[in-house]
Every structure is written in C-alpha cells, then in structure tokens.
C-alpha cells in the first residue's frame, strides 16, 4: 500500500477553501491561515520532496507568524475619525445647557431635547430650572443644576 502524499495543489486548494471560509465568517484569522496555506503550497512547488511533517511544520509556523504580524501591526489600531460622536447621540449632548420642562423627582426625570425625550438623572429640581448635561450612562443623561 502506498502512502498519501501532499502536493502543492492540496495546499493551494486548502488556501482557497480558507479564503471562502473567511468570506463567510468574521474575524480575519482564516485569511492569515489561507495565506500560510498558499505560501506552503509555493514552498512545496519549489521544493517538491518535502515530507508531510515538514509541510505541516511550515504551515503551522507561517500561520502563527502571519496571525502574530496581523495582531501586532494591523489589528489593534483604533479607528480615527473627525466626528467621533457621530453615532453616539447621547454623548453629543454633554456640556449642553437646557431648561427643565418637567421636575426631577427622586433623582429621575425627563427632558425634551430637539425631537426626543430623554430620561435624566440628577438632583431634584423644579420645572424651569437650568441644567447642564455632564455625563451619559447608556440612554440616561446625568445632569447638574446650573448656578
């Protein structure tokens, strides 16, 4: 009985399958493993006599190296924006001074800002008091009385 031997196109096929898997699943790890499989196929194409043990070692080392390089140099960069509060509507209100239409009772109340009604948390205040939004906790605006 003859043993099964891996040839370069096996690795290229694995690389193509991993690329397809990357398209279907998030995370970008399959992309780097696909790169390692394609490179392993290229190494085997150049050096066709490598045993399967060496091939798996080359694939493993290339996979780990490419994932490490991705994590170290590409994966951890924060997204820089000229409008960091664009989709954080409540955070856009921090620092804004408003007039209470309804009183804050037992630390909780509601206020109309633009076209929305927001829940507010702060010291008890009667209606007509000027307040400033000082922080946001989820969808609750934390307010303080303006002197």
TrEMBL record:
It is found in: Membrane. Coiled coil: none annotated. Pfam families: NfeD. GO terms for cellular component: plasma membrane. InterPro entries: Membrane_assoc_protease, NA-bd_OB-fold, NfeD-like_C. The keyword Membrane applies. This is NfeD-like C-terminal domain-containing protein.
